[in-house]
Amino acid sequence: MPYDRRILLVHAHPDDESIGTGATMARYVAEGARVCLVTCTLGEEGDVVPPELGHLAAGRENRLGPYREGELAVACAALGVDDHRFLGGAGRWRDSGMMGAPSNDHPDCFFRADLDEAAAELVRVVREVRPQVIVTYDDNGYYGHPDHIQAHRVAWRAFEKASDPSFGEGEPWLPSRFYVTAMPLDELERAVGTGPFKRVGSVEEFGFGVPGERVTTRIDARAHLGAKITALRAHRTQLSVDGSFFALSDNVGQPALGMEYYTLLAGEPGPPGEDGRETGLFG
Ligand SMILES: CC(=O)N[C@H]1[C@@H](O[C@@H]2[C@H](O)[C@H](O)[C@@H](O)[C@H](O)[C@H]2O)O[C@H](CO)[C@@H](O)[C@@H]1O
Ligand SMILES: [Zn+2]
Questions:
Q1: Is the dihedral angle over the CA atoms 10, 16, 20, 24 positive or is it negative?
Q2: Strand 83-86 vs strand 133-136: parallel, antiparallel, or unpaired?
Q3: Which of 14, 126, 211, 227 could form a disulfide with 162 if both were Cys (CB 3.0 to 4.6 A apart)?
Q4: Which residues make up the binding site for Zn(2+) (predicted)?
């Protein structure tokens, strides 16, 4: 069945899709859109939260990547997403680790990927799926992780080049909108000092968030928060869930929200909702 509305999301590691866009993805699947997820690495360098799985870590058995591939499949099922690919095929580019880690020097790490080589792999997906909308992180990678920064660079390059017949293979396609994920600081402020995990004392301690005026789009996917939380639970090597809060291996509590926020970087915005922000990714 041809899909009228098609969206492509580009994420760095297994877990990012659920953390940043899980409710949005579940909503658009439920509304009959085609939702395609591209994940750029297998997350091989991640911490491992459950002690009984610690043996999987990079510095021990180095089997975390395939294990997280399985977690991602369960998370996608919870969101209703049945179109998932790893950029260039599973394991093509390796998790780079946090900024400054020795793993940033691994020859196969995503942060060292050749930009046009990686973008050509993504253009191949863009020209197959023909999405009106592409979603990824901002140029800071949302919180400064090298793989997130590289995902932005590769996705933006693919957005620029997918309509260029002299670049890559396949029939050119021009996506109409490019969004980056965003968290308004005023929304995040509400989570300061709350929840069942380690509590931050100020919004700056979260290490992400942007001024509200930079946020153009609010997606109300509260009806799909349950699916998002189920998807988050699938990523148990990376995070813990308690009620509507989750925590990564640093145990800092973050709210799992049904409202998800974006900034439109390219394309025409749709009509504003009650808060002055557009209410949909397709206009
Ligand atoms: C959400 C996200 O992008 N997670 C990444 C991140 O994980 C962090 C990393 O292990 C860090 O050392 C911890 O302190 C922090 O709590 C983790 O969230 O980086 C990993 C390595 O690149 C990556 O696998 C994980 O998906
Ligand atoms: Zn990530």
A1: positive
A2: unpaired
A3: 126
A4: 13, 16, 148
Report how many helices (DSSP H) and strands (DSSP E) the chain contains, helices first.
6, 10
Q: Which of 49, 109, 42 is nearest to 73 (CA)?
A: 42
98 close to ligand 1 (CB < 6 Angstrom) = yes
> For 116-131, b where at least 16 C-beta lie within 10 A, e where not — what string?
eebbbbbbbbbbebbb
Q: pLDDT (tens digit, 9 = 90+) per residue, 7-22?
A: 999 999 999 999 999 9
Atom 25 of ligand 1, nearest CA residue? 46
User: What is the reported pTM?
Assistant: 0.98
**Rounded to an integer, what distance in angstroms lies between the CA atom of residue 177 and that of residue 77?**
26
Q: Is 248 in the pocket of ligand 1 (CB under 6 A)?
A: yes
ipTM: 0.98
Measured from the CB, is residue 249 less than 6 Å from ligand 1?
Answer: yes
